[in-house]
């Protein structure tokens, strides 16, 4: 016996996988420390993996789905905060509350009830919340923590396709001259 492990190399992608796990571990630790110091009670789970957007999804739907993952998006609530002169109201067209990602996925009357119920279920599962989403410090973390779940991504795609929501595909921001 030469003393060399007969299984070496272990398998294709082993090193890449180990580096990814190490990177995610360092990234998660750094994020945990920073956000806990800022007072966050819920920390998003990091991942180097791409979002599982199904093949054949239009670019328009893909952009809208990805925008649901972040507070800074094309929804009325954020746009109203950015420029109240241009965006007259933060409310959703349903009139229930501000148009945020969490509202669209869990409480909007313009979205099919079955989609709202399933979104709440997945968000609770992905975040170990039991049955309640409301007490979270940052509900967008709940959405981010579900972003690698294919069923959740498919559900988000169905929500953004709801025509009555009149979601913006893009906005034209005024140019700012830098002196």
Describe the structure.
The protein has helices at residues 14-37, 59-67, 76-82, 101-106, 113-126, 139-144, 150-160. Residues 1-10 have low confidence and may be disordered. The longest helix is centred in the N-terminal third of the chain and has 24 residues, at 14-37. Helix content is 43%, strand content 0%. It starts with 13 loop residues before the first helix and ends in a 19-residue tail after the last helix. The chain contains seven helices and no strands. By secondary structure, it is mainly α.
Assembly state of the chains shown = single chain
Radius of gyration: 20 Å
**With helices defined by DSSP (H or I, 4 residues minimum), what is the helix count?**
7
Poorly predicted ranges: 1-10
End-to-end C-alpha gap: 73 Å
Average pLDDT, to the nearest integer? 82
Q: What share of the residues does DSSP label as strand, in percent?
A: under 5%
Q: What is the total tally of β strands?
A: 0
> Which structural class should the secondary elements be placed in?
mainly alpha
Order of helices and strands: HHHHHHH
The geometry reads as globular
Q: Helical residue percent?
A: 40-55%
Main sheet makeup: none
């Amino acid at each position: 016996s030469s003393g060399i492990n007969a299984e070496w190399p272990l398998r294709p992608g082993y090193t890449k996988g180990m580096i990814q796990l190490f990177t995610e571990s360092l990234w998660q630790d750094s994020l945990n420390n920073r956000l806990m110091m800022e007072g966050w009670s819920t920390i998003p789970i990091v991942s180097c993996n791409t979002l599982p957007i199904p093949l054949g999804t239009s670019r328009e739907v893909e952009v809208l789905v990805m925008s649901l993952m972040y507070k800074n998006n094309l929804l009325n609530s954020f746009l109203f905060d950015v420029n109240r002169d241009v965006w007259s109201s933060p409310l959703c067209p349903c009139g229930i509350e501000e148009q945020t990602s969490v509202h669209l996925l869990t409480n909007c009357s313009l979205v099919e009830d079955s989609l709202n119920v399933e979104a709440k279920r997945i968000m609770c599962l992905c975040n170990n919340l039991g049955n309640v989403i409301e007490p979270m410090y940052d509900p967008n973390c709940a959405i981010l923590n579900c972003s690698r779940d294919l069923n959740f991504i498919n559900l988000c795609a169905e929500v953004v396709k709801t025509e009555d929501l009149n979601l913006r595909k893009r906005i034209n921001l005024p140019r700012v001259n830098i002196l």
